[in-house]
Design brief:
By secondary structure, the protein is an alpha+beta fold. The chain is built from 13 helices and 15 strands. It is 50% helix and 18% strand. It is rod-shaped. The relative contact order is 0.06.
Amino acid sequence: MVAVISIAALQLVNVVRTAQFNEEMVAGSLYLLAQRLRQDPDAISELSARFDADIRILPRSQGPRDEYQRDRLARGQVLVDSVNHGRTARLLHTLSDDELLEVQIDTVTEIQAQATAYMLLEDWQRSGISIEDFLARMQPHFSFPLSVVPLDSLLLSEGDHARIHFGDVLARISIEGRKAEALAKLPGRQEALRLGPIEAFNPYSWQAIAVITVIIFMMLGLGVYWVVNSFQMRLSKLEQATSRLAQGHMNARVAIHGGDPVSRLGVAFNKMAEHIQRLISIQREMVRAVSHELRTPVARIRFGMQIIEDVADDPFVSKQLSGMDSDIQELDELIDEILTYARLEEGGPLLDFQEANVADLALQVVEEASPPAHVRVSYVGMNPDDAGSAEIEPRYIHRAIQNLVGNAGRYAKSAVQVNCSIGADICRVDVEDDGSGIPEEEWNRVFTAFARLDDSRTRSSGGYGLGLSIVRRIAYWHGGRAMVGRSEALGGAKFSLIWPRRHQD
């Protein structure tokens, strides 16, 4: 397709260049004809015979109707057209404000060159100025050189020398046929008027077609590459911003340039990110405010209950107060969970990473665990003395393992196992139980804040729906992840906490 377009474009260029060449060739002759007819309109018959052409004067209304062509004629330019199905050349030139000069030539021969040379000599003799000044005045109207040359410099044959001395106009063509010139002897001088040399028209060849095709292919390829690469780079930046937003960086934005589809997509992304950031900020402020405000009335209630408990002797009242105290303790723990979750969700808690023994932390959590009486929590991981240290925030890792063990203890039938493994680059803690497990379709939802599964996550089992969410955020801020699966050893759920051994800023 590109090759076809190139050939068509080249053909069009050659047509335009041919028309321009023809117009330039006849411009000088038409100028001389127009000048002569302005001085002597009756000379039209003589000039027609001299040029072997049909010369007429037309009203401007019979000229071309095309606005572009009319404008060219108004600027004094020449139009070359064809009539009679291309057999006759039609030349148009402005004669006056109301008239056009029309010249129709069936065949272009040396007669027209001779007539042009004769008219130049005649106009020069009428002008009364030197031949050099006259030719300088005429040169702007001709596309080929006008000059005076000594006869002895022309290397004429005897026949040509005789012809030019008898007043003939001598037309010569170079051996290769690429150049032509007309010579006319100046009266009373051993010099000749030379019209030319006139370069033959040289259309672009098939080699030019090949070169143009290759250039077009290269430009097209470079253009496509530039456009695609530009779009790819901008889409890549948009993808990076989306990933950062998904990772919790609420300030992620993309730079906007122009109004193309990628830019409009970037504008939509920035608006979405701003809206999400605003909603999350409002949510966090509300959670913090509510949590902090709840602490004061809870503390007051507990203080009041202690006073009542001190003065009440009724066993029934004491029992009710004990139950209320348990509820208040649960509410206090919920507030603490909410505040912890809010801090971890704020986009960058201040974590104090330090060297610590992860296996030792896991063993400590197992020893501190207080599961239901029917559940036994055991540590089956590697020996803490052989584990080595890792860069962690001990307080938060301890909290994460504690939450996993507490969650497993609530839903286990009889056993919970904690396994810790430390590799060269990775730390891993697995907590398994022998409970009913978690359906695979719920594995992703179980880490969502306040999420409760229909079969197992009920109020009667305890918990607030935030423990696993906190585990996931702690893993995230350590550069790791939290996962859930099925325990092969115990048959219940298996929660895994995985993160890099060395902290990366």
